[in-house]
Amino acid sequence: MKRKVLALLLAGAMACSVFAGCGGEKDSGNDSQKVQSDDAQKDETKDEEGQEPSGEETGDIVELNFYYSNSPVADQDRIMDKANEIIEKEIGVHLNLIPVDGAQYAEKMNLMINTGDDWDLCFTAHWMDFYNHTAKGAYADLTDLLPTLAPETYSRIPEGLWEGVKVDGKIVAVVNYQQWGAAQRKGFRVRSDIAEEVGFDWKQLEDKPTLEALEILGDFIGKALEAHPDMIGWETAQGGNLFKSDCLYWDMDAVGDTEVPGWIRLDDPKTVINQFETDEFMEFCKIMRDWYEKGYVRKDGATVTDTTPDRTAAKFVAELCYGWPDSIDFPGNADVAKMSMCTPENAPAVAVSTTRTIIPAGAGANAAVAVNANSKNIEKAVELIELLNTNDELYMLITQGEEGVDHVYDEEGNYSLVDGMYNFNYNEWQIGQSYSPTFTRALYNRNEAGEMAKESQGIVFEADKTADVSPLSGFVFNSEPVKTQIANCSAVIDEMLPSLCSGSIDPEENIPQFLERLESAGVNDIIAEKQAQIEAWMN
């Protein structure tokens, strides 16, 4: 499902998924959108200190600017005119929803924050300078406002997620809790038709440690490639591997950026380790070397930057799977019933989970809304957040447009977007919660497939209430003291890790060199700094 894909990239997302910059200037000549007053009126309404009162103080319609990352949206004026009819009636606010192209969004917000430009709300995330902005005091403290001004928003979100948007114990952003939930459980996906053909029992992978699971998969891949020599056993690429960003497969979590040395084991969170010194890293690289020599992976895997052609051509026998519930817990989950970027017809699949279920440290800040600490209308901004998260008609209007105009249902109950009409580009996760206990805040097919999607998501919602929470939730690593060492180590990692993790070079010969180069680059300083900050935070 496209929405779930976006969330994981964010992951690596999310980030996957994220868009002609639009200026944030207010158009004072538009009487239908702005509350106007001339200079004399402004002088009359200034308080004793010479400051203009906020709209909250005067009872006027309050104008709020909300910045988010998106490409231009067709027909936005039509939709926002209708949306503002609701918003002005309910809370006395006129919303200016301002999209900024994804390639410029981070830079735009940095500039606005650094120069003190006028904005009220913005989309933020841990992968988009959330921690840097909080360190500057850019975001308002919402701790006391949320329970009173946004009680339903506050109560809907699992407590573990709030930890991810706290800084020094204060809530500085509102979690955009989504229809796909927050808890993570990862595993593997295999071609179900080929598994049946060669007699592979894919269920044996369930709950297996990653190294054991890879050994089992290796046997399957070998048999599959004998039958289908034109296929590729496993995906390797320059930009992704199991020791670049997938800590959970190793029952670990990252202290700061996942690509920088310094992880913790979930069962020993007080001790920071260099993940590249672990036995798991050596054994993983040995497996990948074995697969490379047997022809299970591409020979150019260390330099491949785009695997989309291979995915869409249904080339892969097995792959990582981030979606769940899996094919054991919920056999009807259509989201895992096909290989990535394929269809159930050309690449049917089954998925099996192998990791624990956990809400990772960065989950709360994976997608959130922050309020400008310098906004004149902080309370109104929080009221707006509550309205966006609880008024289903409003949220669906902004994120999906009008039924029968912007999206339609066919005779079988399947929905589709209308070409050339209003399209939010699947960015609903940036402005609020698509989560709803009654599944009323997202588009679902009105048939059996839609009901199964709801059932699948319901399993994840329940898991969010009981899942483990990363012991690092709420911790923010300050990289400033070791930024030079991080830059030096990153250069070494970028050079050598893709080759090691794709099997292109011998790990027993090259990992010692890799570790020596990291040590010369300052890796021990990084580990020591992370350890010191973890200890100070825990105490």
Relevant terms:
about 550 residues, alpha+beta, D-Maltodextrin-Binding Protein, domain 2, 2 domains, five-stranded mixed beta sheet, three-stranded antiparallel beta sheet, 17 strands, disordered N terminus
The biggest beta sheet, please?
A: 5 strands, mixed
Major sheet strand order: 2-1-3-14-6
Question: What proportion of the residues is helical, as a percent range?
Answer: 25-40%
Number of domains: 2
CATH homologous superfamily of the largest domain - what is it? Periplasmic binding protein-like II
Shape: globular
Structural class: alpha+beta
- Beta percentage is 5-15%
Q: What's the CATH architecture of the largest domain?
A: 3-Layer(aba) Sandwich
CATH fold-level topology of the largest domain: D-Maltodextrin-Binding Protein, domain 2
Low-confidence segments? 1-50
Care to give the gist of this entry?
Helices cover 38% and strands 12% of the residues.
Describe what this molecule looks like in 3D:
With about 550 residues, the chain is α+β, with helices and mostly antiparallel strands. The chain has helices at about 1-10, 40-45, 55-60, 75-90, 100-115, 130-135, 145-150, 150-155, 160-165, 190-200, 210-225, 280-295, 310, 380-390, 390-400, 450-465, 485-500, 505-520, 525-539, and strands spanning about 60-70, 95-100, 120-125, 165, 170, 175, 185-190, 250-255, 265, 270-275, 320, 350-355, 360, 370, 405-410, 415, 470. The strands form 6 sheets. Strands 2-1-3-14-6 form a 5-stranded mixed β-sheet. A hairpin with a 2-residue loop joins strand 9 (about 265) and strand 10 (about 270-275). The longest helix is centred in the C-terminal third of the chain and has 19 residues, at about 450-465. The two termini are about 40 Å apart. The model is unreliable at about 1-50 (pLDDT under 50).
